[in-house]
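Weekly puzzle thread! Below is a chain. First person to post its structure in token form gets bragging rights.
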Amino acid sequence: MAIVELKIPNLGESISSVTFSKWLKPNGSFVALDEPLCEIETEKANQEISADKPGQLIWVAKEGDDLEIGALFAKIDTSVAGEAAAPAAAAPAPVSTPTPAPEKSSSYASGHPSPAASKILSEAGIASSSVAGTGKDGRITKEDAQKAASAPSTPPTAEKSTAPTPNPVPNSSYSRVENRQKMSRMRRTIAKRLVSAKNNTAMLTTFNEVDMSGIMALREKYQDAFVKKYGIKLGFMSIFAKACAKVLMEMPDVNAFIDGEDIIYHDYADISIAISTPTGLVVPPVKNVESMGFHEVELALKELSVKAREGRLSMDEMTGGTFTITNGGVFGSLMSTPIINEPQSAILGMHAIKDRPVVVDGQIVVRPMMYLALSYDHRVIDGSSSVTFLVKVKQLIEDPTLLLLDL
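Winning reply:
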């Protein structure tokens, strides 16, 4: 038996361990060269690992395991590779006794839900132990979970006890089910970084409000022509990104961050954009926004968003950033205090646009207004600088001609 060991590859200097997300091939199945075997989760993105050799796959790792870089996760019996291609009429050659590894993974699979099934059962408050799996080795499939979730609940029987209960209301009316689930690696990383930002920075937040009338009129007037020329819509995010990039070039303190006892200043604006994904929030940067056109920012944002939601962001696409913008308004947030994305020193929070009465030229009028919040590290940015930055961004948004003419 010729056994090839498969180990977790080196994924970059900052990554020392991964979470083994799921198997893409069954235990004991034949795999071809470069065929995807499994999916692993890093603190930044998901990644597939492919077979180095053709042969019979032997599971070693379990779904959900945390593995160090270089850890063994599977084996391939290359001596079985030729047998997969043998004619059906040929007598099978005797094979040696399988290693204990498949037996271990088989017992693990019995009664264990797939990731999709686990999510459905969790949302329905159903314990996996109460569901009979119809998949391979008794595994609970997505269809099993859906049937269990849609089945009517049965009230508890009173056969075991005849004593009257003090509460006449059936127990089924009140759910007391608890379901403990391990945090995903991305969620653990997010939690660690948010706590670090709160504990290791002198973070403050300053607020302002902006009249969105000018931008909305600009988009309404030129949207069709913009789409016709560039094949993509002009959104609010590219306008805010360009406004922030312009002011960042004028106020380098807001675009800097601390490294030990030094402050690093940047002559470029790499703006990280917060993107919500099924597994958590990611903040890939759009690089050199100060030198890009509005359509280039929109196209870059679209590409990053698609990759983020599909879990295809590379390490390079997740690295860097000198300033962050997050838009809670898409979820209906009216006001918030965003947390700094370390090691950056500032983050701009956009919020929902609401019609509100405001005073313009002594008259009360209704305008589409948005609250802006700038959280900043007071160790690097003075209070006056933070307020000035936000006022400058407000001016560019309220009069976009200033932004277009670079005034």
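Puzzle host: Confirmed. Bonus trivia for everyone else. The longest helix spans residues 213-230.
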